[in-house]
Amino acid sequence: MKRILVIEDQAPMRRNIALMLEMEGYEVFTAENGRVGVETARQKRPDLVICDVMMPEMDGHGVVQTLRGEDATATLPFIFLTARSDKTDIRIGMNFGADDYLVKPVVREDLLAAVEARLARAEAIEARVQAAAAANGGGFNPDYSSHEPLTGMGLTNREAEVLLWVAQGKSNGDVAGILGMSEKTVKQHMGNIFEKLGVENRNAAAMQAVEVLGRPRV
């Protein structure tokens, strides 16, 4: 059973989201503010976090930055909830490390689709990491802090930036928001990446990137 943490300061909203998820068979933990949410994430080790942006004590940006900075929660799938849908706000949230962004009031179908997609991406990434670890005899720990190692694959800086996020499970739309470009431009970069790496799909490209990012850096 997948475990989900819901961090939301509005009690009715928190209960409603938790109920929708529990009805789908998820184990749900809740927290009433960011500070409690961070502590709960450390203790419960959920498979995914759904977090409001505007909260007392610690806002959502503070939560995701804190969790991304700790080894145990650095790659935890993270979905922001907000009443604000401005593209600039979305880009800021993605730059802080969020994987998705849902606007309140949340529609049940949208919530479940986002949760299922992020959990599936996390499982796919973990499978790639495990495969690379097996191929490298264990001790494999990809470093996503910089795109520069990926330029050694014959990619431009911009292509390397795109691939860095793709390797972390981001969609073309996600990458577009993070890097401030159109989704069409992202697709063009992906086409160039496929050609240069000699692969036919994003999973193969991501696998190569993960292997490079897992090598010791001089």
TrEMBL record:
Q: Where is the Response regulatory domain?
A: 3-119
**4-aspartylphosphate: which positions carry it?**
52
Keywords linked to the UniProt accession = DNA-binding, Phosphoprotein, Transcription, Transcription regulation, Two-component regulatory system
InterPro entries on file: CheY-like_superfamily, Sig_transdc_resp-reg_C-effctor, Sig_transdc_resp-reg_receiver, Tscrpt_reg_LuxR_C, WalR-like, WH-like_DNA-bd_sf
Family annotation (SMART domains)? HTH_LUXR (SM00421), REC (SM00448)
Which SUPFAM superfamilies has this protein been placed in? Answer: C-terminal effector domain of the bipartite response regulators, CheY-like
HTH luxR-type domain location: 148-213
Q: Name one Pfam family in it.
A: Response_reg
Q: Could you tell me what this protein is called?
A: Response regulator transcription factor
Query: Which species does the entry assign this protein to?
Result: Luteolibacter soli
